[in-house]
Amino acid sequence: MAEIHDPRIAVYLDFDNIVMSWYDRVHGRNAYSRDRQRIAEDPTAPEIAERLAAATVDVGAIIDFAASYGTVMLTRAYADWSSPVNAEYRDQLVSRAVDLVQLFPAAAYAKNGADIRLAVDTVEDMFRTPDLTHVVIVAGDSDYVPLAQRCRRLGRYVVAMGVAGSTAKSLAAACDEFESYDNLPGVELTGTERSGPSRRRRRAKPEPAASSRTSEDSATPAEEPAEDDPHAVAAALLERALELGDRGDGEWLHSSAVKTHMRRMDPSFSEKALGHRSFSDFLKANADIAELEETGHERLVRAKD
Fold first, then answer.
1. Contact between 152 and 122 (Cβ < 8 Å)
2. Residue 212, SS3?
3. Helix (H, G, I), strand (E, B) or coil at 262
4. 152 pLDDT exceeds 90?
5. Which of 26, 49, 172, 239 is 20 to 30 A from 183, alpha carbon to alpha carbon?
6. How many CB atoms lie within 10 A of CB 296?
């Protein structure tokens, strides 16, 4: 159960925006526009399927980042879900209980109105849910600047997330904080200079991607933990929590805060179900990932170098 004063987060994804932007980031400027016709005609064609797989967006990385601020109370993604390209994300979206909002384009290649619907829903949610404290807008369009400004005027902490090179500076300036999707734990981009500080990456994401990545010169994740190995999944969850937790000034984190973050990302996590008497025992069992310091009643942890 969330604490009474626990921050409450709402995440809104302009899904087509982030998918297209990441495709361009992986394959080059305006790559999606050049490939749009081929993608629409047959996204399963070998070359196109490989390019789409190489640019798969990690939805879990976005939601886990949002969970570093508090309890994620709702996550909505806006797109034309009848599109085969978006349908490939079914496993990722279902596993993270994302609310899918269907938007049909008015005409071929026309905008689907995601910015308007997303903005209307966000403002409505702020009035219907007064204890909502944070709004995370996953998009890069300057169209969302008025929404970010309105959210801030209504007393919410606004975080924008977009792909490096595809996000309007005006949107970043209108928010309390901006985070590049490129820099999230678990997201890799090889062969291209990354923006922002590098982050530790040793293990894979807690949940499997919707499509496997096969391109050697594109985004390449680390080896994923076996789905039937709960210890490997828990270790990957711990690493991501530590990577997201050290965004502040100090590397050391209270172990209780790390456990809370892990439970936010995966409510099914339980150190006792893994055979550990306490969370500290769980941390000690993962000494290759976490360094634990116990002083009196205080237990601090940080990612191991």
1. no
2. coil
3. helix
4. yes
5. 49
6. 5
